[in-house]
Each structure stands twice: as C-alpha cells, then as structure tokens.
Amino acid sequence: MTNTANIFLPTGSLPAVSDAKNGFPTPFPWVGLITLSAAVFLSVTSEMLPTGLLPEMSRSLNVAQSQIGLLVSWFAFTVVLTSAPVAIWTRRFPRHGLIIVVLVIFAVSNILTAIAPTYELVVAARVLGGVAHGLFWSVVGAYAGHLVPKAQIGRAVSITVAGGTLAFVFGVPLGTAGGHLLGWRLSFVVLAGLMLVGAVLVWKFLPPVARYSTGAPASAAAATTRPPRDATVPAVVLICIITGITMIGHYSFYTYITPFLLDGLGVDLGLVAPLLFVYGVAGAVGLLLVGTVFGTRPSLGLILGLAISALSVTILAMFTATLPIALAAFVLWGMAFGTLPPLLQTRMLHAASPRIRDTASAFYTTAFNAGIGGGALLGAMLIDSVGLETVPIVYVGVLVVALALVLVTDRMTRRRAAA
C-alpha cells in the first residue's frame, strides 16, 4: 500500500494516557510513533520496490516486464484476500509481538525474493509478503491510537502514516538506485536486513499496548438484532468505488513508470532513481497541501487533484519528445496525485455516519488494495496487447470516470444534508 493506506481505529472510546504514579499525562510518545512510522516505511518500500527494478528483474528472471509488474498485483490481491481472516485469527495475540513477527516475515519474504531462481518462486515470496502486509495494516493504526489520548489520535496517526510517504520519497528511489548499481537481488537483501533492524527497534522502543476490542456484540440479543439501514451507505459505497477506480488507473501506469521513463522519454537508466525521488517529494508536497489547504475542503481538493492529474498525464503522453515539458508534467502529476488518497479517505469519513465509520474504513482499504492489484494487472494487459504508449491514455480516461463519480457523490451528499 501507499502512503495512504487506511487506518483501522479501535471501536469505542480510548482511555487517556496518563502517568499512573502521579496522575499527570505522560509525554507525547514520539519515539514509539516514529518507530511505528519506520515500520510503515519498510512495509510500503517492500510493496512497491519492484516498480523501480522492472528492467533488471525482467532480464534476470527471463520474463516480460509486464510479468514483473504483476508482482505488485500478486502482493495487493493477497492483502485483499487474507487481511480480514488473518486479522481475525490473530485478534487474541499481543499487538506488540505481532508487529515484530510481521517484520520478520517481511524479512524472510525479501530474502526469498532475492535468492529465488525462478519467477514462480518470486511470486510465492511476494504472496508471503502480502499476507504479512495485510496483517500489518490491520494492527498499525489502532496501535497508534492506543499510545495517545483520544484527542491526539489524529496527530499520532499522521506521524505513523508519514512513513508511507517517505517510502516513496526515499525508500523506492534508494532501492532502485542500489539495484541499478549492485543488482536487484542485493536491494531485496538490504531491505530484508533493514526489516530485521526494524523488528529490533520495535521490540526495544515501541511500548506494548493491550489487545483492543474486536467489536463483538455485548450480548446474544445484540448479535441477533438487525441494525437499521444507514442512509450514508450509498455515498460510502460510491466513494469506495471511486477509490478503487482511481487506484486502478494510477497503478496501471505507475507500476510501469520505469520502462516508460526509459523507453517513452528516453532518459538514462541512472536518472530513473533521481526522478522517482523527485516524484516522491512532489507527492509529499501534495500531502502537505491537503493538511494546509484542502483538509477542510476535501471535495474541492479531490476535484482539483483528479483534474490536474489527468491534465499532467495527458501532457506527459503528448510531449514525450520534449523532455523538459514531459518532466515538468511528471512532477506536477506526482504533486496532484499526492493529494488524492488522503482526500479520498477524508471524503469517505465525512460521508459516513459515525455508526458505520469502522466498517466503511474496512471497505476503503479493500477497495484501495484491489485497485493497486487491478491497476498493475490492467497495465500488464495493455502493454502486452497494444503497447506501453497507450497506458497513460487509458489512465486519463479512468481519471475522467472517477471525476464524474466524485461530482455525483457530492450531489448525493448535498441532497442528504438538505433532507
């Protein structure tokens, strides 16, 4: 998942964090939250690293670049299919120990990827990583919420998911640069080592928390009583559909951005990692715009983000022969898209009534990961059938559909508010 992976918050109110000895509130847990953010950084880097190493992995494993792109699909679809059952199965395990175990499994997955002699074994290793990734994201957000009083949950969650943003700014570009210089297998070995270091840091610096509520009914009567239909469900479903569609479009192109930069724009291989770094920084700027400008106006920000993304990718596709214009459009695209995932999540939380926000968040995460996997699959099909140059055109078309649906959702929300 990306810097915008969804946050699962525990049901019910959270107890205030206080010093049991003298009754005063404890200091804000910066060290623990930064450690958690580092784990997020490693998780997202592991998920997206193949996007920067497509040419090298393709040549080494003797498969088409589209097949390497499908590694993202295998990873994301595994998250979609396994996150809920694995989260239920592990609900009685200590949260602190689960994060450590997940990071160790990530390390094993990356080591297996690095030593796999065949494409099929790489797929199996990525599936293992996908199982760990799904469990990881079912724990992380609620964990951050338990470290702070209720009034500071938003701040804690923001610090935690910042690791995902930094993964695109530093993790993927550095892994790509290392793969270009020393070989793609060594990049995965180094990432595995960092996962083990992360597990040690979590063990040492992340405070343990009590297991949180799974939301089970308090009584048999509560379990058999059907709740009344919530009027906000249609808007939430539509926003989740918009999220899935937007991610399908984005990852149909971004998954194969390295071959596009090399073959479409003609940049040197050594420039790929710096360009991915610039793209990640632009995305961080977009995230900053959400917090400072569009946080209270998510509908306006979402419309502008989709429209500018579509415009910038259109320019990128039209001016491949004019490198300065194409690269400027590439950076603009990174900034515009950086606003979309947090705005989509904010829009969903605004649309959902408090009673269904937990359920709505679960559907949002499923839609997001299904979009990642579906996008990588769509891009592979387009590349194999009609060529790489058509992928950005399809992406723009998908964004136009998402933009139309956003306008429909706004209209539904206004009608509900007026009713």
From TrEMBL:
GO molecular function list: transmembrane transporter activity
Membrane topology recorded in Swiss-Prot or TrEMBL: Multi-pass membrane protein
Location relative to the cell: Cell membrane
Entry keywords, A to Z: Cell membrane, Membrane, Transmembrane, Transmembrane helix
Protein known as: MFS transporter
Domain of life: Bacteria
Gene Ontology CC: plasma membrane
A Pfam family of this chain: MFS_1
Domain (Major facilitator superfamily (MFS) profile) ranges: 32-414
